[in-house]
Every structure is written in structure tokens, then in C-alpha cells.
Amino acid sequence: MSVAEYHMRQISTLLTLAACSVVVASAAAQNYHVSPVVAATNEGSGSNAFPFSSSVQRRYMQIHSDMPLQAMQIKAIGFRNTASASTYTGSRQLDIELFMGRTRAWNECSFIYDQNWLQNSKMQVVTRKTITFGAGAAASPGPSPFDPSLEIKLDAPYVYIGAAGSLGWELHMHSNVATGTNGSIDVDICSFAPGSDSPTTTACTAGGQSTPMAHTVEISDRSGTLLMLFSARYCPANAPSLLIIGTQNLNVPIPGLCANLATDLLLVFPFGTSDANGDLHRIGTTYYFGAAGGVIAVPNPGAGTIYSQILSFDATQPGLPFAASNGLALTIPQSDTSKKVEVTRLFNNSGGVTEPMSAVFDTSSMGYGLVTRFTY
């Protein structure tokens, strides 16, 4: 072997060793992606105590549509406390399961949990176990650090392929036993503009009720997505119902109908069945069911007005067998896209870890989420 050949072989060996060391270092390195991305180095605009500081058995899901277009082997998800000058002590013993998978987009989600997973992609990444979830550090002003004690490590890395789409995680909280004082988790919220509803007609009183049917709509722009939560109270009990949406304010009598027809029949949707109290898509005055028909999310068409009314089957009416709600004029706000938070959360306050439907709030479901750090 010549001297030149010897030195070439030595150089080749060194280059091979260097390449191997880079691969090993890369595999051992900890990389992070924070979602919502706008909160990576900024304090979020809200805070929330659950699911980690609540003893309620529930499902809790977040959809993240701002993930990077690169493959990642996700090893853990972590959280941080909201900004605070307090010092927290203690810990929580959480009996949990965790799932991950590809999902619908944040503004195309269903509020029926299982309808969000694409192509049966839901995968269990933490089998049921009890973990210690710490108090976590806090800073004022924020953002607080991502404290290791506020992290959930996966049983094995979840391979996120980085294709166009969204990533979801779903936590099943079986029990939560806390000691000491704990902070609230940092949350970020998208820009939004509120709309409004105002009555255009009076309602009739359904059979079995002493108060006229009351139709209301929560309406807002969520960073370019128009979110409308339709509901009614004092309907006939257990009654199949229809939602009518139109572009005209009619307010005309219809022979046999117990109240004036509020609008043209441009769109007519099956609206589900009222519960035993006569509530449709809401529990009392608190929050909405996520069933089909009660929630509509579409790209905001721009400022304007549409009209709605609800008809519920009611055999006690002397004419047509329907009870009619009041009509509403719905003011659509101008879109506000100044702050994008492409995250949506789903949760339930009852029904435990097998409840199929999430509750939904106008201001804290879509474009709202715990600031989450993905370690890969």
C-alpha cells in the first residue's frame, strides 16, 4: 500500500466516523415544536385549569393545524404555567390514557370526538397508568418555562409523517388527585369578532311548556372562520326539530302555524331532538352539545345579515303539528385575522371518558388551546 493510499483510507475512515457521530448526535438531540406557534416565545392570552387541575372524569382533545411539514418522532408533550409571580408546590396523581393521530383541520372539526380522526389514525401512545404531574415553575412576566414536571412522556415515539394535515392528541382523565397549590396552564386564543342576534318575530308556546320557545344563536368570527352555535329552549320535550336559515326577513302568517314564519326556506336542516326538558343543543344556559346541526363553522363570507328560526314537532298544536320559535336576525361580523391560533380543543364536563360528544363554547373552543410543546 502506498503512502497516498494509506492516507486516503485514513481520511475515509475519519469521515465515516464523523458521519456516524452526527447521526448519533442527531438521534440523541431534543428538538421542540410549540403550538400555537405564535405562543412559542410569547405569553398566551388566557389560562385554563383543566384537564390537569380538575377532578372531573373527561375526554380532552386538541387539534393542532400549525405543525411543521417535516417528519418527527414525538417523544413527549409538555405544558407551561400561565404567567405568575406565585411559587407553586405539590403535585397531581393523574390516572390517564393518551392517544395521538392525524385529524381534520382546527376550523373543520367535529364536536363529536371520533369523527375528527382521519383514516382510523387514532393510536394509543400512553397506556392507562398513573403519572405524577408536578406543580411546575412560573414566571412573571411570562412566558413561564416548559417545566419537565408538566410533561407527559409517550410509551414509544409517535411517528408524525409531516404531510399536510393536522395532529391531534386526546387525553382520557380517569382520576386526578392533587396536593398542594398548582397553577393554571397557559392558553392562547385567536383573534375574534363577535356578532349578534336580535328577535324578528314572537314564538308560540309548545305543548307541556309555560314559556314561549326561545331561539338564540352565539355567533363570532374566529380568525376568518364564522362559528355559529344554534340552540333553543322551551321546545316540546323529545321533539324532532328543523332549523331554517334564510336571507329574507319575512315575518308572515302561515295558515295553521302557531307563529309567523320568520324567513324564507333557503336552507332547512334536521336539528336533532330536544331533551326531556325541551332544550335543543344546550344544557340549560351553560354550554352546547356538539351534535350535528347545532354547530356550523364556515369561512366568513363578510359582514351581513341572515335570518333563522326553529320548528319542533308538536302534536298538541291545533293546526300544523309544529311549534315555532321566535325568528332571529343574525349579524355577521367582519372577519378579523390579525392573530391566527390554528388550534381547537374539545372537552366534556359529564359522561366520563366514554362520552361521544364534546361541549362547545363560542369563545373557548375553536381557535383556543393549551400551549403545547411537542418534543421530538
Can you tell me about this structure?
By secondary structure, the protein is mainly beta. The protein has one helix at 3-28; strands spanning 32-35, 46-48, 58-64, 72-78, 91-103, 123-134, 151-160, 166-178, 185-189, 192-194, 196-199, 214-222, 225-233, 240-246, 249-252, 261-263, 267-273, 288-289, 295-299, 304-313, 322-324, 328-332, 343-347, 359-360, 368-370, 372-375. Strands 11, 14, 17, 20, 21 and 22 form a six-stranded antiparallel β-sheet that branches. A five-stranded antiparallel β-sheet has the order 6-5-8-3-23, with no helix packed on it. It has a four-stranded antiparallel β-sheet with strand order 1-26-4-7, with no helix packed on it. Strand 15 (249-252) and strand 16 form a beta hairpin. The model is unreliable at 6-27 (pLDDT under 50).
Structural class: mainly beta
Q: Counting H and I runs of at least 4 residues, what is the number of helices?
A: 1
Largest sheet: 6 strands, antiparallel
Strand content: 35-45%
Oligomer: single chain
Unreliable stretches: 6-27
- Could you report the average pLDDT, rounded to the nearest whole number? 91
Number of strands: 26
Estimated helix fraction = under 10%
Gyration radius (Cα, Å) is: 26 Å
Distance between the termini: 46 Å
* Global outline: elongated
Order of helices and strands: HEEEEEEEEEEEEEEEEEEEEEEEEEE
Keywords:
376 residues; five-stranded antiparallel beta sheet; mainly beta; single chain
Blueprint of the fold:
Elements: H1 3-28, E1 32-35, E2 46-48, E3 58-64, E4 72-78, E5 91-103, E6 123-134, E7 151-160, E8 166-178, E9 185-189, E10 192-194, E11 196-199, E12 214-222, E13 225-233, E14 240-246, E15 249-252, E16 261-263, E17 267-273, E18 288-289, E19 295-299, E20 304-313, E21 322-324, E22 328-332, E23 343-347, E24 359-360, E25 368-370, E26 372-375
Antiparallel strand pairs: 1-26, 2-9, 3-8, 3-23, 4-7, 4-26, 5-6, 5-8, 9-25, 10-12, 11-22, 12-13, 13-19, 14-17, 14-20, 15-16, 18-24, 20-21, 20-22
